[in-house]
Specification:
About 30% of the residues are buried. This protein is an alpha+beta fold. It starts with 14 loop residues before the first helix and ends with a strand. The strands form 16 sheets. A six-stranded mixed beta sheet has the order 7-6-5-8-11-12, with helices on both faces. Strands 2-4-17-14-15 form a five-stranded antiparallel beta sheet, with no helix packed on it. Strands 38-41-40-39 form a four-stranded mixed beta sheet, covered by helices on one side. The protein has 14 helices and 43 strands. Strand 20 and strand 21 (about 420-425) form a beta hairpin. Helix 6 packs parallel to helix 8 (about 265-275). The chain is flat and about 150 Å long. The longest helix has about 45 residues, at about 660-705.
């Protein structure tokens, strides 16, 4: 199955590749993943007020509970999981209260919280327990004053306050509401110096001290009530506390004793512990700190924020609303996954709301009794979870059937499994024929070199036990092979960017072409169909078909089938003289007709209508040409599939009749007379127009003329004569003479 030099691992490939290499289907090992449900109890259908009282551990809200998944790399396994919120499900509620001085008026209202809250919660569940704890601040400077007087009574004036403390578990979870009222009624306000409080220390202890608090495996609610902000990890440095919070329980006599030793926990640390212990948190804070705690809520899954009135008078309604909000939403989480394993979710929620990816972890607006089918591991805030046992499919079935110390592996030096040898320790080689202690690498390397070469395995493999084992490529379709790894299937000539043009197989750097292909890159097609002309001839009989392309032997022809000739006469002009001489015995080739014009078959027809028409199988040309007598004759020229030329010609040419002289002369004379008359009429019209314009002009001047009257008075004519100069340099004298005419 393997080519020479290929490693044993090359037998592993995808199914299609193995089949293409010739591996029989029955010899292919292809293990598949599977799933098996081990525990599948139905979800509990229970109504509030029912006579039957079930223990919390007997109530099932998630199905199935335990299953085994066998996973193969790249093959996902899908399973469905159903969640149903149980009616009358038990609830544990722990009320954690800030007892700094600013909460003085709130404490009075909380003292009667036990019985009132028990009454309201009975509408939701018949199994309800309540507990109480309080917190102030770390008992070191600068959080509190450490003077002896302030340690006894941190309040000013005549206020009677209790000593400051970090966290105190006043009442573990109990179903006795009166006991809650009694113990809370004995509590007193304390005080501190800074505004943020040490509530995170208290939340951590409530989460991890399950035995002292009394948490059951039921719905766990933690109500955190304050009117101030909070300290978190790093703030302990102000008091010289640098050790990170260890996340463990440190309650002695219900008091947190390590507040001066460990720093405040971080938000992420709190999220981890609250999630591990399935505790849902309700932040009951005043309006002033709503924004801060809403940001905190976004970081803590399954938490809610309610607005606490200035004196905590609305705390019961706040708890009821927050519980309904938390219990109407299911969010999935999974524990840390093994390396290489991923989980994706798809939820099928109420009212047909479906989602995937991160949103697939969550369903909202769930009412009591609603079902939620999805792929999930654990719903946040609930103690129930699905246990999934992952088993990885990393071996083929045939490996379990291997023959240890098989004779097929060089006298029992390996296990023969899945058709190959897995060598025992200290043995190497394809058949385990070499010992690592006895092999001299220099001697063996000589067997891995080609003649006149210094390269071991052509630099494409390594020499093991005197045999070349070729390297594997990242692309599993690219393979080195050969005794010296000198061959490969990816360094052949390419055409159009494809190895062997996609028309062959690359073997030892040489293309083996598929049928009807040739050439170094299998880019030469032997198929003559592309060269076939419309007349059925290859290249119109004017060339040869090479690699699917016509190579025209006559250089004046070109085109895909040598059909075009830019310098050639047309078909009609080319055959005109021969058709004329054979059909009508005249023309330029009349004398040589029998020698030059017998290359076609000629058929005479009576009229143009009888000529062959377009649509017949053979290519056809219709021609209209003039003969030596200026008569038109008509013929068709075609070549059949056998290469025979056929001519059909109309037997009678169309000759034009001579001209009629009399009508022509009469027409010319009539034309000259008409043109002369037209010219005279035009001249006469122009003269009339000119005369009328001149007469109008004369009339206009006549009307405008003014005649001056000459008077009978005499007028004097003045004559000026220039006499001679009196002397040189003197001015001339003008003599004026006057005379009066008659």
């Amino acid at each position: 199955f393997l080519q020479e030099g290929e490693p044993t691992s090359a037998r592993c490939d995808d199914l299609a590749a193995l089949k293409s290499k010739g591996c029989p289907v029955e010899d292919i090992e292809n293990p598949r993943g599977s799933k098996q449900v081990l525990e599948d109890r139905e979800v509990t259908n229970r109504k509030i007020g029912a006579a039957e009282k079930l223990k919390p551990e007997a109530i099932t809200q998630i199905q199935p509970q335990k299953l085994v998944l066998k996973l193969r790399v790249g093959e996902p396994q899908t399973f469905s999981l159903k969640f149903k919120r149980a009616e009358d499900y038990p609830i544990d509620l722990y009320y954690l209260m800030d007892l700094s001085y600013s909460m003085k008026d709130d404490l009075e209202n909380v003292k009667s919280l036990g019985t009132a809250l028990m009454f309201e919660m009975e509408k939701i569940t018949s199994d309800f327990r309540i507990g109480f704890g309080s917190f102030v601040e770390k008992t070191v400077m600068p959080y509190i004053s450490t003077t002896p007087a302030k340690l006894r009574n941190p309040c000013t004036g005549d206020q009677n306050c209790t000593s400051p403390f970090s966290y105190k578990n006043v009442l573990s979870l109990t179903s006795e509401g009166n006991k809650f009222n009694e113990l809370v009624g004995k509590q007193h306000i304390s005080g501190n110096l800074d505004s943020p409080e040490g509530g995170f220390d208290a939340i951590m202890q409530v989460a991890v001290c399950g035995e002292q608090i009394g948490w059951r495996n039921v719905t766990r609610l933690l109500v955190f009530s304050t009117d101030a902000g909070f300290h978190f990890a790093g703030d302990g440095k102000l008091g010289g506390i640098v050790l990170p919070n260890d996340g463990k329980c440190h309650l002695e006599n219900n008091m947190y004793t390590m507040s001066h030793y460990y720093d405040y926990p971080s938000i992420a640390h709190l999220v981890q512990k609250l999630s591990e212990n399935n505790i849902q948190t309700i932040f009951a804070v005043t309006e002033e700190f709503q924004a801060v705690y809403k940001e905190l809520k976004n970081l803590i899954p399954k938490s809610a924020v309610g607005t606490l009135s200035s004196n905590s008078s609305n705390v019961i309604q706040l708890i009821i609303d927050a519980y309904n909000s938390l219990s109407s939403e299911v969010i999935l989480e999974n524990s840390k996954l093994p390396k290489g394993v991923t989980i994706s979710y798809k939820s099928y929620c109420k009212n047909g709301v479906n989602d995937t990816q991160e949103d697939g972890r969550k369903c909202s607006n769930i009412s009591i009794g609603d079902e939620n089918e999805t792929i999930k591991i654990k719903p946040l805030g609930f103690t129930e979870e699905v246990e999934i046992n992952l088993q990885f499919v990393c071996e083929c079935q045939c490996q379990n059937e291997g023959e240890a110390n098989s004779p097929a592996c060089h006298e029992g030096n390996g296990t023969f499994e899945c058709g190959a040898c897995r060598c025992n320790e200290g043995r190497i080689g394809r058949l385990c024929e070499c010992s690592t202690d006895e092999v001299n690498s220099e001697d063996m390397d000589a067997y891995c070199r080609r003649e006149n070469s210094t390269e071991i395995c052509s630099n494409n493999g390594e020499c093991i036990c005197g045999q070349c084992v070729c390297k594997k490529r990242e692309n599993t379709n690219e393979v080195y092979s050969g005794k010296y790894c000198e061959c490969d299937n990816f360094n052949c000539d390419r055409s159009n960017g494809l190895i062997c043009g996609g028309n062959g197989i690359c073997k030892c750097r040489v293309c083996e072409c598929f049928p009807n292909f040739t050439g170094s890159a299998c880019d030469c097609s032997l198929d003559t169909v592309p060269c076939m002309a419309s007349n059925g001839q290859i290249c119109n009989g004017r060339g040869t078909c090479e690699c699917g392309t016509c190579n025209c032997t006559d250089p004046k022809f070109q085109g895909s089938t040598c059909e075009m000739c830019q310098t050639c006469l047309g078909v009609c002009a080319e055959h005109k003289d021969c058709v004329q001489c054979r059909a009508f015995n005249k023309g330029e080739k009349k004398e040589t007709c029998s020698q030059e014009c017998m290359y076609f078959n000629m058929t005479r027809v009576e009229s143009r209508d009888k000529l062959p028409q377009p649509g017949q199988p053979d290519p056809l040309s219709h021609c209209k040409e003039k003969d030596v007598d200026d008569c038109w004759f008509y013929f068709t020229y075609s070549v059949n599939s056998n290469g025979e030329a056929n001519v059909h010609v109309v037997e009678t040419p169309e000759c034009p009749s001579g001209p009629d002289i009399i009508p022509i002369v009469a027409g010319v004379v009539a034309g000259i007379v008409l043109i002369g008359l037209a010219l005279l009429l035009i001249w006469k019209l122009l003269m009339i127009i000119h005369d009328r314009r001149e007469f109008a002009k004369f009339e206009k001047e006549k009307m405008n003329a003014k005649w001056d009257t000459v008077s009978e008075e005499a007028f004097t004519c003045i004559k000026v004569k220039l006499n001679s100069f009196d002397s040189v340099g003197e001015s001339p004298l003008l003599v004026v003479e006057t005379e009066t005419p008659n």
